[in-house]
Amino acid sequence: MIERVYRKARESGAEKVVVATDDRYILEEVKGFGGDAMMTSKEHLSGTDRVFEAAQGLGLNANDIIINVQGDEPLIPPRLIKQVAAGINEENEVVTLCERITSVEDFLDRNIVKVVRDQKQQALYFSRAPIPCSPEVSAYKKIDSFSPEHLRHIGIYGYTFRQLENYVRAEPCKLELIEKLEQLRLLTYGIRIKVLEALIGSPRGVDTAEDVKRVDFQLREEK
Fold this sequence. Notes:
The chain is built from nine helices and eight strands. The chain is α/β, with parallel strands linked by helices. The protein has one domain: Alpha-Beta Complex (Spore Coat Polysaccharide Biosynthesis Protein SpsA, Chain A). The strands form two sheets. Strands 3, 4, 5, 6, 7 and 8 form a six-stranded mixed sheet that branches. The radius of gyration is 18 Å and the shape is globular.
């Protein structure tokens, strides 16, 4: 899986792709298929902290752009990696993606993170709970029950080195700890997150044992 994610990142046209890990087995696996990997501390509380250590090791500057593609996203389209990178500018130094929710199963699934945006596509809130939600959850039974405001967050992030550093220097916040969503730290400390609607669909990543079976089937279908 990690090799596939690596190759998808390479296909995006990124200047450099590095796997940041605290597991020597993964390090050797990446090197085995000719990839670039870096060992990082086992003490990190989040993947973002790990990315920051790797970015420091690469000697990046304040305005350099980093795209965090998680290792459990083997189906991520390279086009979406490029979209996130292209969305970063002086006004939007943190960018992520979303797509429409069209099923009640996804809406109620706590492994699927939802996001609510303002009129400028800036994130208002992320949650594992079904948001935005009418008082009658049972109303969401078919596709036409959902509006353009019902959005699934796609777990890919882009940021300038400066804003990545601002994140890791800030203390974890209560909302982040409650929801188990590290991006809420950025919102709590007043750092805006631009949430673009994905140009194409992105299959869900791997969060559960059922996801492993689903992704394995999809990969077999591609061959």
